[in-house]
Amino acid sequence: MVRDLGVKIDPEVDRVEVDGKEVTQPPKRYIILNKPAGYLTQLGPSQSGKRTLDELLRGVAVRVFPAGRLDYNTEGLLFLTNDGELANRVLHPRYKLPKVYHALVKGKVGRNRLRSLAKGTELEDGFAEPDSVRILEYMAGNTLIEITFHEGRKHIVKRYMAKMGHPVIKLKRVAIGPLRLGNLPSGKWRDLTESELRKLKRSVGLK
Ligand code: URA
Question: Which domains, and CATH codes, for the chain?
Answer without folding.
Answer: 30-95+178-203 (3.30.70.580), 99-173 (3.30.70.1560)
